Amino acid sequence: MKSVIVNGVQKSFKANKGSVQALKEISFDVEQGELFGLIGPDGAGKTTLFRILTTLMIADSGSASVDGFDVVKDFKAIRKRVGYMPGRFSLYQDLSVEENLSFFATLFDTTIEENYDLVKDIYIQIEKFKHRKAGALSGGMKQKLALCCALIHKPSVLFLDEPTTGVDAVSRQEFWELLRQLQKQNITIVVSTPYMDEASLCDRVALIQQGSLLDIDTPKGIMNKLGKPLWSVRASDMYVLMKELKSMYEVFSCYPFGQEHHVIFHNDGQSILEIETALKKKGIADAQFKRTEPTIEDSFMKLMNK
Amino acid sequence: MKQFIFFIRKEFFHLWRDKKTLFILFGLPVAQILIFGFALTNEVKNTRIAILDNSKDETTNAIIRQLNASRYFDIVRDIKSDHELEAAFREGKIRMAVVFPTQFQYLLLHTNRAAVQLVTDATDPNVANTLANYATAIVMDYQSSMKGHQDLPYTINTELRMLYNPQMKGSYNFVPGVMAMVLMLVCAMMTSISIVREKEMGTMEVILVSPIVPIRVVIAKMVPYFLLSAVNIASILLLSFYVLEVPIQGNLALLVGECLFFTITVLALGLLISSVADSQQTAMLISLMGLFLPTIMLSGFMFPVENMPVPLQVVSNLVPAKWFYYIVKGIMIKGLGFEFVWKETLILAGMTLFFMVVSIRKFKTRLE
Amino acid sequence: MNAIAVQNLTKQFGSFTAVDNISFDVKRGEIFGFLGANGAGKTTAMRMLCGLSFPTRGEATVAGFDLFREAEKIKKSIGYMSQKFSLYEDLTIKENIRFYGGIYGLTDGQIKSKTDFMLQHLGLSEQANTLVKSLPLGWRQKLSFSVAMVHEPQIVFLDEPTGGVDPVTRREFWTMIYEAAHAGTTVFVTTHYMDEAEYCDRVSIMVDGRIDALGTPTELKEQFSASDMAGVFLKLARRAKRGDD
Fold first, then answer.
1. Are residues B115 and B34 in the same domain?
2. pLDDT confidence of C244, banded at 50, 70, 90?
3. Do residues B25 and B136 share a domain?
4. Both B265 and B346 in a single domain?
5. At B160, is the pLDDT very low, low, confident or very high (cuts 50, 70, 90)?
6. Which residues of B touch A95 (CB under 8 A)?
7. Highest mean pLDDT among A180-184, B103-107, B145-149, C82-86
8. Which of A231, B147, B152, C142 has the fewest Cβ atoms within 10 Å of its own Cβ atom?
9. Which CATH class is domain A231-305?
10. Helix, strand, coil proportions of chain B in percent (round to 5)?
11. Helices in chain A by DSSP H: which ranges?
12. pLDDT above 70 as % of chain A
């Protein structure tokens, strides 16, 4: 059974001048037990989509269902069975870890004890601070607590809106490990993130930009969809190299990637020797080209450029 | 029900852990009562006055003795002439002069009519007025005592009685006013802020997505502030009774009942604000500008409603605090029973119902 | 001369040592990445270097000025931009530029020519009179970087400048950083994107208030035998003891 079905959802907001289309005809499905990533920059429409799916907003047109329930008609049923962690969610800073958790448990008419199994793996990591105020926890710990709070009523679908934003790389990695473990308990997880590198940790991802889906596929599938050979290039002066490459008409795109630049040529069979010679004429003698595997970001940027 | 109790418990935690705010909420009424009671009172004490006695007879002597004996006045000068009188005012040595015409006693005994002239420094008209009233009261007092003793037909044409507040103590009027103010601050502002805070923090989103009925959340938020207000009402009444010696003329149970009822009105107002505001700042501004100021200006507690221009008088009817002020003044100071304040109570009840209905309708179960 | 020279800098809050005896230099025109886990002391260190808080111990010069005695002069020669706050959302683009130009004491003529140059450079000339809040995030970040550079500072401090920005804009942003560095501005930048760490000339990684690693990305990857900076960072940050206890 499909856990989440989104069908032609549109949503606009009134702005100063006219209206802004936050979501344009979005459609996708999420399978039961899937870890589904919604990847896109801020302002892409991720939060709006989450709010529609968690029954907090009503779409202008289109339909959506969660766990087989319609998000508009059966909103009460959905509210009983989803877990939701909003983007700017900050817990109650003045309540202790334990008080926060037990509050969210009662909110869903359950107790910590009843569903302890589900949160145990996460909770034991923060249990030693259970009397500490949530406001005094570090970023990573807060996040784990928030996840516990969203899980405590044993939801069948979990919506996490940018849970890793502003969190350092270590905590981010730990958080994703937790999500992987949760998935084994047969919970469907829909998570949004602006970090492209996190996409590879999902079963499937939807790339979203300015309210439209660019693509939906497995991370591998998305990487393969680049469709053109990708070259990485290095030289001693990377800045000049970038300028020169961008000015060449053979070059389709050139973006910095770490210590290299990733280059795509218009012509798939472009001779590298030609390019190297051209660069030499411009005074870059040490450019080294290498074929490389695309990342999600390469694909995302290519899709954005379409 | 368990959910509800948990909610209330959580609200108490919030309240209890923010010690600074808690201190202000409890300290505010005490401070206000004491400030109004002692500092801002328009009572006058030991005002320096002068006497110009052109008659110097038994009656004038007696009146002067009584003036001097009162704690309002200190006779600092005996003046011999009008000229001297002017000088004394100019130098600012006196605030009031009492002038007896020649043959005061003779005129009083034979024509039954005599006039005392009260000259006041009217740079501060309120004080001048008060001083004149006090002096008149003392003179009248003397006249009536004279009449009582001798049983002679000395008709006294001006009868001035200080109704309800024979000593004209300033404290009386402001106690109900302060009560309205404190309730506005504690209930309306604090509840609206605490609801809006959850919107700001994003916790409201989670609460909305949960199966709990949102209106219960809101009512749970009101409970701690209701109790807090009850404590404040008690402390205001105790302070005014024992420290400021304002007597409670009417039925205490009725008084407390009306106060608690008004608390609910104000809580409903706070709820209404929270459904409109989406930041704590806005909530605070609306509470201050929209509730607090009208409470001070239009409830009749600072400025008598009868003296306002007609449009403002009409507007003042919309201010719940006006009715509350009237009710509390009636019960506490005039000693009226419920049969005299039920109309006002009904008006408040209507307002409360209106606020409740509007805010519950406006309270969104979604975010738009 | 070094743009930033830090010697044994320490900051204590009560018994808590937020920054523990750190020493490093940043060369003029260098892009210096300043990494660390949440709570490692990055923000505290950066605040001290911007002259916003006094160190407990140690020595430092920023743009040639002493951190203790010449904090005001430092503030004039640095630019600062953070992800959270930089521009006034309810002012127009032009008004923001004029405001910041005014703060740094530019003349009206300078402000005017700067504004024109900046708008043209960013391709925002037509939007000069729109409110900042109606700009997409990526544009806003690029604009706030330009605004931080309005007084041509010697050093610019960037605190997580690219959080939440789409990958193309992120790269455009880094191109701007390269341009600035090429023109001689020293860039001091923090980020949570590990691939961005590799754009830096040199990178320092803070752990528990200390600088545990410092070098070019290539050196660090060799030193910690990791394939990328994320690997280096994870190895280091996993050693952290504080933060959560």
1. no
2. very low
3. no
4. yes
5. very low
6. 10, 13-14
7. A180-184
8. B152
9. alpha beta
10. 70, 5, 25
11. 46-53, 75-81, 97-107, 116-126, 139-151, 169-183, 219-224, 238-247, 272-281, 296-305
12. 99
**Residue among C38, C137, C194 minimizing CB distance to A139:** C38
**Yes or no, beta carbons of B206 and A104 under 8 Å apart:** yes
Do B188 and B173 lie in a common domain?
yes
When mean pLDDT is compared across B5-14, B46-55, B162-171, the lowest value belongs to B162-171
Name the average pLDDT for chain B: 80
CB pairs under 8 A between A and C: 104
Query: What's the confidence (pLDDT) of residue B39?
Result: 66
- Report the length, in residues, of chain A: 306
What mean pLDDT comes out for the span B71-94?
80
> Could you tell me the two tokens for A34?
């899937």
Give the pairing of strands B96-100 and B47-53.
parallel
pLDDT greater than 60 at residue C61? yes
pLDDT band at B367 (very low <50, low <70, confident <90, very high): low
Residue from A80, A103, A112 whose CB has the most chain B CBs within 10 Å, to mutate:
A103
The verdict on B204 and B347 lying in the same domain is yes
Query: Is the CB of B10 inside 8 Å of chain A's CB atoms?
Result: yes
State which amino acid sits at residue B209.
Answer: V
Residue B105: domain span: 47-150
User: Residue A208 in contact with residue A220, Cβ under 8 Å?
Assistant: no
The confidence score (pLDDT) of residue B147 equals 63
Q: Which of residues 174-203 of A touch C (CB under 8 A)?
A: 194-197
Percent of chain A with pLDDT over 90: 50
* Chain A residues 50-69 with a CB less than 8 Å from chain C: none
Mean pLDDT of B34-63: 77
Question: What is the CATH T-level fold of the domain A2-218, as seen in this structure?
Answer: Rossmann fold (3.40.50)
Q: Find residues 19-78 of chain C whose CB sits inside 8 Å of chain A.
A: 36-39
> What pLDDT does residue B41 have?
55
Question: Using the beta-carbon criterion (under 8 Å), do A256 and C194 form an inter-chain contact?
Answer: no
Q: Which residues pair with A260 in a beta bridge?
A: A257
Q: For chain C, how are helix, strand and coil distributed in percent, rounded to 5?
A: 40, 25, 35
Neighbouring chains of C at 3+ CB pairs within 8 Å? A
Q: Which of helix, strand or coil describes residue C213? A: strand
- Taking contacts as CB-CB distances below 8 angstroms, the residues of chain A near B17 are 94
Nearest C-alpha neighbor of B5 from the set A107, C173, C234, A124: A107
For the record, the structure tokens of B363 come out as: 């309270």
From chain B, the residues in CB contact with A108 under 8 A are: 210-212
* Mean pLDDT value of segment B21-38: 83
Q: Quick check: A173 and C171 CB within 8 A? A: no
Computed over every residue of chain A, the mean pLDDT equals: 90
- Structure-token pair, residue A3: 């856990």
Contact B208 A107 (CB under 8 A): no
Question: What mean pLDDT comes out for the span A254-280?
Answer: 89
C169-215, pLDDT tens digit by residue? 888 899 899 889 989 999 999 988 888 898 899 999 999 899 999 99
**Which residues in chain A have Cβ-Cβ distances shorter than 8 Å to C241?**
none
Encoded tokens for A75: 């909103």
Contact B202 A89 (CB under 8 A): yes
Whose tokens are 């359950």? That residue is: A110
Residue B158 confidence class, pLDDT cut points 50, 70, 90: very low
> In the numeric block, which tokens belong to residue B343?
């109309």
Same domain, B143 and B6: no
Q: Are residues B226 and B346 in the same domain?
A: yes
Count the domains in chain B: 2
Domain ranges of chain A: 2-218, 231-305
A-B Cβ pairs (cutoff 8 Å, strict)? 81
Using the beta-carbon criterion (under 8 Å), do A106 and B14 form an inter-chain contact? no
Nearest to B367 among A56, A106, A149 (CB): A56
Instruction: Say whether residue C217 is in contact with chain A using an 8 A CB cutoff.
Output: yes
- Choose among C202, C220, C152: nearest CA to C30: C202
Q: What is the pLDDT of residue C146?
A: 92
Domains of chain C listed by start with CATH number: 2-86+152-237 (3.40.50.300)
Token pair 């030693």 is found at A128
